[in-house]
């Protein structure tokens, strides 16, 4: 009788486990339909049985631990991240580990992670079983391990960041950084910024029917920007807010942080952001978000950049009419907008200077969103999967909220900015989205804004100077941070260099990272002070590019 440890009569079991896993990974990393995983698994099992993998004629059993187990585990991590988020951003991983992931609403992700661990354990057991029972696998798997290491994008990204330490030019972006203005404004409008979670402008495409229709209606009243693309390190909520309020990508503190095993106490303290500028000009500042302010350093960022009021799920909880009316991330949009309206009324009644309110909703959050009861009553039953249902809900709630504030007279002399925080992550219409040219939402409304559409090749970095100029600030060369105002003729970095060059330079950058985290980094050796104005590019900068002055 065969022993339990050898399984000599069951080679189909490890073959099936590996085949199904290969098929699933292929559907995750490509646009292949889900049913192709069965075809891939069947082909794999067929080849394995034909070649008698695990049952060679001259079988020699050896109890070994294959070299490929670690590379396989790392590849499993990459597939999990790609399956969960659509694209894998190492910056997001590092930042969330350091800024904190307390009070997140990803309970479903935790279940998914446990399932992945179980499946990966089965895959590792299968490879070990085949290597122990088949000398052909013992010889081949060590080369397979090298291929897995070389092909894993996670390790490729880590290698690029390591190379940045010794790169010839690690301050390409830093030289282009323009400090924001400190002079007086020409006028002082109030400011309302509404971040719509993951509600990219791509949803306005006809293939998604009327999911985006309410934002199109809003756009008919004001200024609509098209072509706001997503560069690396701006593709998650905190990164999108920092890019649009500070004009810089969120480069995690990483090894610059002098207390590696403790949470961050400040978020990008080395640059002046929108809150710092407005506070210096007498603005009263409030941030209200549906999720916890403890997650990903949101509270640290807003408090550290001069916001007087910072509220999230925990702060709103005592004032909820129905304590049970919450979701896994926080409060629903209809509740959030009620609290935001109350905050604007309070600030308006105080009549002690201009105000700025920033809020962040939840309805469009991947993978399926969190439609409010208001939307359920209006749109009918939600199947729990269709992100377009939640997109329609998010757009509708935002439009109604703005219109109600307008009718109440609370948006007089107010610049309203409606934008997505980043492009969406993996959702039910992922294949359709990724087949299109994707861009972020950016709409501006106000008393003196004429309806207009502006198409520019830009990133979220350019939102920062655009907001400042619309609020009456005079910018040096129409620039602030790394962005250029989209209502000026100044070319953006993307227009000059292209998104690929920006991403490549970002991976090599160290000086801008030091600037962002100044005060948290260990002191470096004394260097010559860097000029605050932009310098003419070096010949290396200009190679293959048109000549520019920044």
UniProtKB/TrEMBL annotation:
It comes from Halomonas colorata. Keywords: Cell membrane, Membrane, Transmembrane, Transmembrane helix. The keyword Kinase does not apply. It comes from the Bacteria. It is found in: Cell membrane. It is a multi-pass membrane protein. Residues 192-472 form the Sulfatase N-terminal domain. The chain crosses the membrane at residues 35-52, 64-81, 113-131, 143-159. This is Sulfatase-like hydrolase/transferase.
